[in-house]
Structures are given as C-alpha cells and as structure tokens.
Amino acid sequence: MDPLGHVNNSIYATLFEQNRVEFQSQPGGFREAAGQTVVLATMTIDFLREMHWPGTVEIGLGVGRLGTSSFDIEQEISRDGALIARGRCTQVLIDSAQRRPVPLSSEQRLRLSRWMACRKV
After folding, report:
1. 54-69 per-position pLDDT tens digit
2. Does residue 50 contact residue 8 with C-beta atoms inside 8 Å?
3. Would you say 74 and 59 are in contact if contact means Cβ atoms under 8 Å apart?
4. Is the dihedral of CA 56, 86, 83, 30 positive or negative?
5. Which of 34, 71, 75, 116 is least enclosed, having the fewest CB within 10 Å?
6. Do the Cβ atoms of 102 and 36 come closer than 8 Å?
C-alpha cells in the first residue's frame, strides 16, 4: 500500500503479468514453440479509480493487434463491477538462443486471434 492507503501502483503491473502468465497456461491460450519465448516490449497502465486493500479483483484479457512477431494484449482490472484500470502491452516472440524476434507461426496466430475479444482469465 502507498502512504494514502491505496494499493501501490506497482501491484497493478504484477496483477497484469500474473493474468498474462495464466493466459499462456490456458488450453486455448498462447503457446511458444521449442526454442522460443515471449518478452515484454512496452506496457502502459491507465489508473481510472483508487483501489484499496483488501478485496478481490477480476482481470479481463484480450488480444488487440497481431503483428509479424509481436502482439498487443489489452487488459482490465475490475472490482465490484467498477473498472479500476486498463493495461496495454506489446509482447514480442523471440528465439531463446539468438534473442532476436521470430515470426508468429500460423498456429500461434490462430490461437491469438481467438482472443481478439476481451475475456476473463
């Protein structure tokens, strides 16, 4: 918590990250191929309302854009039906050894395209 009694702003990024990790473990979620990993390139958070502890939040996730080797994830944090924050990030698929971007495969693009509408994870 911050000095004003709010959930600290760094926690929002952690909540969004945990949600993205959960997305990758879903049966229909994103999958890297052998020798690939996804890295975070950019992240923005719009803080819309204060959030106090304790409480339970819901986090929605959707894919906003598919690029050649990158994709955008759009997320929302809600609590008691009120929208608290929105997050957007760009993730890049890279070769784990070379640490260079690699194109998304047809299978990866298909998996991501199924998430073009926001869904709760």
Report:
1. 889 999 999 999 999 9
2. no
3. no
4. negative
5. 34
6. yes
CA distance 55 to 36: 36
Residue 105 and residue 99 in contact, taking contact as beta carbons nearer than 8 Å:
no
pLDDT in tens, 86-121: 999 999 999 999 999 999 999 999 999 999 865 454
How many Å apart are CA 83 and CA 77, to the nearest integer? Answer: 6
Coil/strand/helix, residue 113 = helix
Give the largest Cα separation in the chain, rounded.
Answer: 48
Q: How far apart are CA 42 and CA 70, in angstroms?
A: 11
Distance of alpha carbon 109 from alpha carbon 114, whole angstroms: 9
> What's this model's pTM, rounded to 2 decimal places?
0.87
